[in-house]
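worker-03 picked up job from queue 'complexes'. Input manifest follows; two sequence lines, order preserved.
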Amino acid sequence: MKIPLLSDSISAGFPSPADDYIEENIDLNEYLISNPFSTFFLRVKGNSMINSGIKDKDLIIVDKSLTAKPGNIIIAIIDGGFTIKRLSIKNNELYLKSENHDYPDFSFRDYVDIQIWGVVIYSIHSYL
Amino acid sequence: MKNKHSSTEAIALIDANNFYASCEQSINPNLRNKPVVILSNNDGCIIARSPEARALKIKMGIPYFKVKERLNRLGVSVLSSNYSLYADMSKRLMNLLKNYSEKIEIYSIDEAFVSILRPKGKNLHPWARKVRCLIYQNLGITLTIGIAGNKVRAKIANKLAKNINSSSGIFDLDRIDNENYYLRKINVENIWGIGKQTSIWLQSKGIKNAKELRDMDQEEIIKKLGVIGKRLQLELKGNKCLPIEIIKKPKKEIQVSRSFGNPITKLEDLTQALAIYAIKASAKMRSQNLKSSAITVFTRTSHYSNHPYQKSAHKKLINATDNTNTILKIVVALSKEIYTPEYKLSKAGVLMQDLTTSKYLQQSIMNYESLEESKKSIRLMRTIDSLNKKFNTEVITWAITKKQQDWKMNRDLLSIGSTTDIKRIPNTTA
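worker-03 finished. Artifact:
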């Protein structure tokens, strides 16, 4: 995850005039993750969240220390598997919403054993 | 801080229930609420069970081949052990516990003593409930928390928390009225620090449980068990003798040993295996700032072999070292000494002994001329360690490890889940 900003190796001769300006690497772990001991990575399989920008094969960062609020994208456990959905409210009732019209929503009333596993904080998409 | 005078230090022993199985269930929802067993290295024996597997009366330690069919019939999920997952979850657990305690002593992969302040006269159930909830939410792991004024009693409280159904995994031994009743429930052999021999002796004296040991004649204990026994009894009575040890004592030796998936008969295979263990052991030493000045290698046949054999070889060094190159040369030479062609070797290992902290190490005069050389090799080792750490695997290693490893450990049923390897992270349906 480390991207070097400036090289710190210099062969000989005059000291580099840039020496005083060398900074630490940009550390994406540090930038993206505030609770490292509660944070997990998952891989997305499927297209049900496309309208929210989350696509098949994306890397998802989940923070389990956060308490899910309506509007959050969350990882739920349904039928023994992880599912990514948006936690939403309709008519005063919580449900899990797909962000793609071809996929169903899940109401807590129909699926009594839904568990919320964690809150999605970032998705990482490769454009290559 | 303002409560300093009105509060006392309490000690909690916190451990994770069915830790290995819980780790697997935590990142693989398909295993939740199902019977799961974990096998030892080489898929030999059952070393961990989920509560559901326990309820099916599947025994701990039983060889896998003996129960394979029964497990199949019962629909039990069988997994090879996945130590990188358990180590990562343990690191997460201990770091989260740090936020909720004054001091922490990591006691094992799934167990820690922590100290907390007890406001005067208060019980610590609210604190313990909070810690349990938090760890369950963050890691999917259920804890048992035993609280008392010292370590021996905290261990007992933890046992009581496990054995009493109504405890919800929490027991505060210093906030109950009928202590004798509970101490009688703890047999002497289950008290922390009482070994098998001691418990036989105690029972011959009519001492069967923690209450009776607490009230036993002190002189008699000291005569037989010395100061250790005296301390143990004092802790049972409520005195504090054993402090929380935050700083880990440096290990006396580092061992890397494994059983082979297939027995070894060729010298080159034995040498290669030992070389790989030597590389691991050297990196382990460097990560703990340790150097070794005595190296032992050993090998043996299976315990069930009709032609048993075991041999070890040892070398003392003038200068303590943590340099993989130096250690490899020695280990490769020693491997020839322990090899005999006619045996099927099933296990081998490398031991780094006489460990010293490299910070305080003095270069001996004999080594003076090679100081420059040694600086160079320190740099090289550091680079290799940091690259391997960065990529989470041995990206850089020694040529000897690259030959086909026919003898490598069997882990046929390896659980797919990982929290540390991006190629094996869990999937989520979208």
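worker-03 released lock.
Residues 48 and 102 of chain A are 8 Å apart (CA to CA).
Chain A touches chain B at residues 2, 37-38, 40-49, 54, 56, 59-60, 64-65, 75, 77, 80-84, 117 (CB under 8 Å).
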